[in-house]
Specification:
The protein is of the alpha+beta class. The chain is about 50% helix and about 20% strand. The protein folds into five domains: about 130 residues, no CATH class; about 100 residues, PAS domain (Beta-Lactamase); about 120 residues, Beta-Lactamase; about 90 residues; about 150 residues, Heat Shock Protein 90 (2-Layer Sandwich).
């Protein structure tokens, strides 16, 4: 008794499997012929060794060699072995030996012919069986591949697929079906399709299924809802087909399920948007329309002509032109022709006449074009802007009236300002004469009474000091009046050169002071030369004056960019001032320091600001007590 181990059985099975799948056509041709020759030579040698030449059956071993050659190398290799074997037999085993001479040629001929025919049949049969086996393997492989593809199509399809018995029990279903309803395959196997069908869709589904089973229809398709495992609704498109047996009896059902939830949500969103769009059109007074360029027919959409109280929903171009205001017809026709040709956008406001009433409409359109660029359809919107146009025309009329009134008021203010400036100049000029008289008589009184007591001398000093102060104030008024009057003449100016010259004059006037000053080169501007020089004179004089008590005095003139504006700056490191009191800085005769600290009338900065304003510029100040001050200005 022998036993075969599983390993030995497996090895034997693999050997037979390999032999069964052997295909001579896959082998190298020279190897097939070489093997056939080797097997034939080996068979001939064994035949001569094992039995004498006179023994019968001289072709038996060579027939076996031809069969082996055919199994390994196919029909040609088998016939090659047969022919080689016949040569060897006739040479080695037929008298006289080792020659191709025959004692009985007739017997040798029929013997060889019979052997050749026999081997042809044997080798041909082996080759035929191999060919049939190869065809069977190829057919089996094709069947396996087809089954695999069919299975892959079922299992990996983008749509849910299922086979079920007539009573609804599942035969098979794919993963996509499970994913649509949210269940695992194990959970799905325990469910019926009724368990996750929406209650409102179940009756229709069962009705259609019954019609299919009754033979009224072969299949049906409709949109239905499933209840997802997590509780939300899934929209699907279900297609169900019935497969019958050869006898016509219902066999099983094929269900194809496509998830259309996204599409249904999109449709719902579109419906919502359309409703909102209609409401927006209604609120904005808009009408949507389309026009066939070839037929020249204009059609309003979704009844929107009612929003604009238009008489009809469809118009020809002639009807529209007939309603167009005569003054606007040529313009409308020209703009439409240009838009059709693609030369410009169709965006136009014109008037239509309804029952003698003139109404304004704003119309915009875009064109659809064919492959040749020719306009085939226009899509547009129309808005009734009658109220807006009437308001615009009323505003234009009011603006024209307002401009006239503003011009009159401006002229009146200019006349009043000019009169006030003239009055200030006249008053200041006329005050000089009595002031000189007061000062002269006070001086004469002192000279005529040298023995005057101390108190009287003090009174005279106060009278003369007050008259001097009054004279300086009058000079200030005259200066302000002078800079506010006259025509402004703009010329190119080099502020760097002007500032350098003024600082050199200050340094020559007070040589005992050690003041460092820096002027940035290339400070160019446009302005009235005398006024701009007076502006720099006042700013630099202030900087020079308020650095008198600073050990290392520094005065700078430079340009500074702030946002989109470039400012000219005069900066010092002198006494500075408190920004909390900056509101009085540019008011005439207002001072931020005590008279005993720094001399002056408080007229310089007021004059500087008035000069800047006359040039249409802006002036700013920035300072801190004991840390100097910076004045920035532009000249328009």
């Amino acid at each position: 008794m022998t036993t075969t181990t599983p390993q030995g059985t497996s090895r034997t099975q693999r050997l037979w499997q390999k032999l069964a799948e052997w295909d001579p056509e896959r082998q190298n041709q020279w190897k097939r012929y070489a093997l056939a020759l080797a097997v034939t030579l080996l068979a001939a040698w064994l035949r001569t060794v094992l039995a004498p030449a006179e023994a019968g059956g001289r072709f038996i071993s060579l027939s076996l060699a031809a069969a082996i050659a055919a199994l390994y190398g196919g029909f040609r290799a088998g016939m090659f072995s047969t022919l080689v074997g016949m040569v060897l037999v006739n040479f080695l085993m037929v008298r006289p030996y080792f020659s191709f001479s025959f004692e009985d040629p007739t017997d040798a001929f029929w013997l060889n012919l019979w052997h050749l025919v026999t081997q042809f049949v044997v080798v041909g049969s082996i080759s035929f069986m191999q060919r049939q086996n190869r065809a069977l393997r190829e057919t089996s492989a094709l069947l396996k591949e087809s089954h695999r593809k069919l299975s892959d199509t079922f299992e990996q399809g983008a749509t849910g697929m299922a086979h079920s018995h007539i009573d609804g029990r599942w035969i098979r279903f794919n993963q996509t079906y499970c994913d649509i309803v949210g269940y695992t395959k194990e959970e799905m196997a325990r469910l019926h399709f009724r368990d996750f069908t929406h209650p409102q869709d179940l009756a229709l589904d069962m009705h259609q299924l019954q019609r299919t089973l009754d033979g009224e229809i072969t299949h049906y398709s409709f949109e239905k809802r499933y209840i997802h495992k997590q509780g939300h609704t899934i929209w699907v498109n279900l297609t169900l087909s019935l497969v019958r047996t050869e006898s016509g009896e219902p066999d099983y059902l094929i269900a194809v399920v496509q998830d259309i939830t996204a599409r249904k949500m999109t449709e719902e969103a579109l419906r919502t948007n359309e409703q909102l769009l209609r409401q927006a059109h209604r609120m904005a007074g808009l009408s949507s329309w389309q026009a066939d360029v070839a037929t020249r027919r204009f059609t309003t959409l979704a009844g929107s002509h009612e929003m604009l109280n238009l008489p009809n929903a469809e118009f020809s171009d002639e009807e529209l032109l007939a309603m167009t205001h005569p003054d606007d017809r040529a313009m409308v026709m020209q703009r439409w022709a240009q838009a059709v040709k693609g030369e410009r956008k169709y965006d136009i406001i014109y008037r239509l006449l309804f029952g003698g009433e003139e109404r304004w409409f704003w119309v915009q359109a875009e064109f659809e074009r064919n492959a040749k660029g020719r306009a085939v359809r226009a899509l547009g919107v129309t808005q009734d802007v009658t109220h807006r146009k009437r308001h615009e025309m009323e505003i234009q009329r009011l603006n024209a009236t307002l401009e006239q009134r503003i011009g009159q008021r401006t002229q009146a203010l200019a006349d009043a300002y000019e009169e006030l400036e003239s009055y200030s100049y006249a008053v200041a000029h006329d005050l000089r004469s009595p002031l000189r008289i007061i000062n002269g008589f006070a001086q004469a009184l002192r000279e005529d009474n040298p023995a005057m007591d101390t108190q009287s001398q003090s009174h005279l000093d106060r009278i003369m000091g007050a008259s001097k102060k009054m004279g300086e104030l009058i000079d200030g008024l005259l200066s302000l009046s002078q800079f506010a009057r006259g025509e402004l003449r703009r010329e190119p100016l080099d502020l760097s050169a002007i500032a350098t010259r003024l600082l050199e004059e200050f340094a020559a006037t007070e040589p005992q002071r050690q003041v460092q000053w820096q002027v940035e080169p290339g400070l160019l501007a446009s302005g009235d030369p005398p006024l701009v020089e007076a502006l720099l004179q006042n700013l630099l004089h202030n900087a020079w004056k308020y650095t008198a008590q600073t050990p290392q005095a520094l005065v700078r003139v430079y340009r500074e960019q702030r946002g989109a504006s470039g400012y000219f700056c005069v900066s010092d490191n002198g006494a500075g001032f408190d920004m909390a009191r900056a509101a009085k800085l540019f008011q005439p005769f207002q001072r931020l320091h005590m008279p005993h600290e720094f001399s002056g009338l408080g007229i310089g900065l007021a004059t500087a600001r008035r000069i800047v304003q006359r040039h249409g510029g802006d002036m700013q100040a920035e300072a801190a007590p004991g840390q100097g001050a910076t004045f920035r200005f532009t000249l328009g």
